[in-house]
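DM from R.C. (forwarded with permission)

"hey, sorry to bug you on a friday — could you get me a structure for this? deadline for the figure draft is monday and I only need the backbone to look sensible"
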Amino acid sequence: MGQRLNRCLDAPVALPPLRRRLLLLFIMLFLWLYMFYSCAGSCAGLTTRGSPAPPRTAPPLPPLLPGEPGEEGSLEEQRAAPDAGSPISSFFNGSGTKRLPQAIIIGVKKGGTRALLEFLRVHPDVRAVGAEPHFFDRNYERGLAWYRELMPRTLEGQITMEKTPSYFVTKEAPARISSMSKGTKLIVVVRDPVTRAISDYTQTLSKKPDIPTFESLTFKNRTTGLIDTSWSAIQIGIYAKHLENWLLHFPIGQILFVSGERLIRDPAGELGRVQDFLGLKRIITDKHFYFNKTKGFPCLKKAEGSSKPHCLGKTKGRTHPDMDQEVVQRLRDFYRPFNMKFYQMTGQDFGWD
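My reply, with the result:
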């Protein structure tokens, strides 16, 4: 009995030729994946050698301040947004290195920052945070290590990005970002300040239907026509004033100004400028977009990691309420000198007048 068992164990197992080939292919694929993963981990280790290791536990996402609506949709929508990246880097979860952002979309609220970020995430060399970190305005005391831990992992040659539109109007933000890295590239998406203010009001109205009318909030005194610049919806649109603060810490050439209107009319053209500014190959082109007539703005034919078309969420493209045209005209007259100064400072005419 024992001799018979030994003979069975010693005898080679004969597999059909097709199974042998499949087994060999599977082994080769497994070895290739193992070598690739090991290489990715080693490369990431080399880039971080000598720098302190980030905390292992994932930090909580930054909270919204009480009573403050989110800049670009609800915080729940932002938290649901996945980080972008190439399929390979996404597949190898944990590969790459968490780095502080080399580029930040700093503003402005209701200008088109979410659209720009979603479009940029199509690029395989862009990795971006889905939610707005609000580090340089609300969470600065948590420190750079906390901020870095929020960032997605990147491989060599990829750019880490984030967007928080309220940075542009935060007095302390320019100095804080400069302290992190003087070489940080900044992107500002601007839009006709009157349209932007109405869009801002419309977003707040959708969350708080009992707020006063746009017209009553616009003026300190309706009779004298004195504009209330303390109202954030008005104050954000004084772009020249806010830009002066940034130019104390960054040269104008380190800031790219994207037109929110052109981003809708010609998304590929504006994305071409952004890719050039970031030093990226022009991969995002006309072939990536189609115009959604229902929403009134461009959508992606295919989002990153998906074969389906992708439009921004239901909070985008809200219908604006009817406004008193006299109030709209007074706002245009108010903004005109500030717009002219902004055109001179940036060297661009945005055509708002």
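R.C.: lifesaver. The radius of gyration is 26 Å.
me: no worries. The longest strand covers residues 185-190.
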